[in-house]
């Protein structure tokens, strides 16, 4: 596979367009499925609702027709006499009324399975014969015990219990009969109606091309279905069993008989029947399939256009980008004079060309400036080395000093002058300590040792009046500190606090911890520092905190500001020297350094 082809701008752009179109196709199909599914469900529900409304209207009209057609029969003289008479009817009277009832049923009423006349005096006449016109034959019928009211009533679907007949499903219409003289309810007609024949009279029950309606009672008995074999059976005994679980206020999609169906259910107001409307989803979703095919064809056509048009268009763009890429490749080899040819077309590529040229101009200028800076830095380095050489030439050779002090020590020993011997040894140790440059940090013990030697020299100078004390706990002796931190401060204490008083005074060095810091105090009992001079020294310390690399060195290279600046540069702005003085009482210099163990210091250096 050609990797370069797959990574080219033109190919990625084409693939990107195809992916966008494919994503749009998926989104469009999802929206179409969702929206069309909603519309289909709404249409099925509407058709079902229309069928239920039409069915309710037909039932109401049918019952009204029954009432109108039975009114003349109820007003007949023989029937009225039967209702008024409390005595049992004579056979000839019963047969005459039975004949009228059968005549009524036979006249365009094939859906009536049975008709009964009941009086309020517990007398009954049926259409089946004089013998079966007895109440005890029908006492198990659900309508038998109904009260005699003034309104038309409907009794839901039930199975008949006629004598010597197989049961079959019917619903009952109870029509009140009024006494024509008293206008009071004197009895009623009971008409057992076969639902299938009634519904067939209502006309077409189809739904679309292949869908249809069917009716079931509230207890699941099939009242009407195009398949006559299922009528009168419970839905659970037929393949309709799965559809009875679709009872809801919305259209449901159900898999039934190896096919997807939309099912909607409405309830009849009078009969308490469930009117099922079912239609194959394939029939209802024909529009959705058309929409899907339209989207797929659109995708195919647009994809073909992309494969043809996008490479042509991207070639126009990538050609100029490739030119810029080649120019940049030359610049990467170190050719800073290469430039892109800028055309007059004011588009994004034009500005890229201009930006590249400006970048190269600036880069060429910066390279020249860097070259000049490097040259100046080399010249400065040479001058610094020359200055160091001159400084070294102007210094006294330390070995000469050490040898001279050694000779003085030896002569003092031979001449039995122990004080001179001690001074020479201490002075040699002090200079040897200050002259070593290999370590920037030492332990506090090393620093205190050199302070002790310096104080020995001072005590030899003022043997009777000067005292000193080093009061530092052993746990602090291993703490690292900057070299030549304490000795210059002790030297200042002697110079400005002890010498002006002829050596009469004391210098005390102590230490204590404060949190994660170690504080070392150098105190003297000299004359103290006047306030204006103290303010000037504190200002110098503050300046050394802000600009430690420019701190003044004071008198010599190891003054207070110098020590303070070195501590700030080494440990940070929170560390350094603090100066407190009281006129006539003395001066205290506090040195704050980090309280660190040598092992921790070694880990930090690693």
Automatic annotation (TrEMBL):
User: What is the catalytic activity of this protein?
Assistant: ATP + protein L-histidine = ADP + protein N-phospho-L-histidine
- How does the record classify its membrane topology? Multi-pass membrane protein
Q: What is its EC number?
A: 2.7.13.3
Q: Which Pfam families match?
A: dCache_1, HAMP, HATPase_c, His_kinase
Which keywords appear in this protein's UniProt record, sorted alphabetically? ATP-binding, Cell membrane, Kinase, Membrane, Nucleotide-binding, Phosphoprotein, Transferase, Transmembrane, Transmembrane helix, Two-component regulatory system
* Organism placement in taxonomy: Bacteria, Bacillati, Bacillota, Bacilli, Bacillales
Is Cytoplasm among this UniProt entry's keywords?
A: no
Q: What name goes with this protein?
A: histidine kinase
User: Which molecular-function annotation in GO is an example for this chain?
Assistant: protein histidine kinase activity
Top-level enzyme category: transferase
Record the organism: Cohnella cellulosilytica
């Amino acid at each position: 596979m050609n990797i370069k082809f797959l990574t080219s701008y033109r190919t990625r752009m084409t693939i990107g367009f195809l992916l966008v179109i494919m994503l749009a196709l998926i989104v469009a199909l999802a929206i179409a499925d969702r929206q069309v599914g909603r519309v289909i469900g709404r249409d099925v529900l509407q058709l079902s609702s229309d069928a239920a409304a039409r069915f309710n209207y037909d039932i109401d009209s049918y019952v009204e027709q029954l009432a109108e057609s039975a009114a003349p029969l109820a007003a007949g003289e023989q029937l009225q006499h039967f209702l008024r008479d409390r005595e049992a009817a004579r056979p000839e009277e019963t047969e005459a009324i039975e004949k009228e009832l059968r005549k009524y049923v036979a006249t365009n009423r094939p859906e009536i399975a049975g008709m009964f006349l009941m009086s309020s005096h517990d007398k009954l006449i049926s259409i089946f014969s004089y013998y079966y016109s007895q109440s005890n034959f029908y006492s198990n019928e659900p309508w038998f015990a109904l009260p005699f009211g003034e309104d038309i009533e409907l009794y839901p679907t039930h199975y008949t219990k006629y004598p010597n007949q197989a049961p079959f499903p019917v619903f009952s219409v109870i029509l009140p009969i009024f006494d024509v003289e008293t206008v009071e309810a004197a009895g009623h007609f009971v008409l057992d109606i076969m639902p299938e024949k009634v519904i067939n009279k209502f006309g077409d029950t189809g739904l679309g091309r292949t869908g249809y309606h069917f009716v079931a009672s509230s207890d699941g008995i099939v009242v009407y279905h195009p398949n006559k074999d299922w009528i009168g059976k419970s839905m659970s005994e037929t393949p309709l069993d799965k559809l009875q679980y679709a009872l809801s206020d919305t259209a449901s999609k159900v898999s039934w008989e190896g096919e997807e169906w939309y099912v909607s259910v409405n309830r009849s107001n009078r009969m308490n029947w469930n009117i099922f409307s079912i239609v194959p989803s394939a029939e209802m979703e024909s529009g959705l399939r058309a929409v899907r095919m339209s989207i797929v064809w659109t995708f195919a056509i647009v994809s073909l256009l992309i494969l043809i048009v996008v490479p042509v268009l991207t070639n126009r763009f990538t050609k100029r980008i490739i030119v810029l890429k080649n120019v940049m490749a030359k610049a990467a080899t170190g050719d800073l004079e290469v430039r892109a040819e800028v055309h007059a077309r004011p588009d994004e590529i034009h500005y890229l060309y201009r930006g590249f040229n400006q970048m190269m101009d600036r880069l060429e200028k910066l390279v020249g400036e860097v070259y000049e800076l490097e040259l100046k830095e080399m010249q400065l380095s040479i001058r610094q080395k020359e200055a160091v050489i001159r400084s070294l030439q102007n210094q006294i050779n330390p070995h000469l000093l050490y040898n001279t002090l050694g000779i003085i020590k030896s002569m003092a020993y031979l001449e039995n002058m122990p004080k001179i011997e001690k001074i020479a040894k201490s002075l040699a140790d002090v200079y040897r300590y200050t002259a070593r440059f290999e370590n920037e940090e030492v332990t506090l013990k090393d620093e205190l040792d050199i302070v002790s030697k310096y104080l020995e020299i001072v005590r030899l100078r003022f043997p009777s009046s000067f005292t000193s004390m080093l009061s530092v706990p052993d746990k602090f002796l291993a703490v690292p500190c900057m070299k030549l931190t304490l000795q210059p401060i002790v030297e200042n204490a002697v110079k400005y606090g002890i010498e002006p008083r002829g050596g009469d005074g004391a210098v005390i060095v102590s230490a204590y911890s404060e949190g994660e810091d170690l504080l070392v105090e150098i105190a003297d009992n000299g004359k103290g520092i006047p306030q204006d001079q103290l303010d000037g020294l504190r200002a110098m310390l503050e300046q050394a905190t802000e600009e430690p690399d420019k701190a003044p060195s004071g008198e010599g290279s190891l003054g207070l500001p110098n020590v303070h600046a070195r501590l700030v540069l080494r440990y940070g702005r929170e560390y350094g020297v603090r100066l407190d003085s009281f006129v006539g009482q003395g001066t205290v210099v506090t040195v704050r350094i980090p309280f660190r163990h040598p092992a921790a210091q070694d880990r930090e250096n690693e």
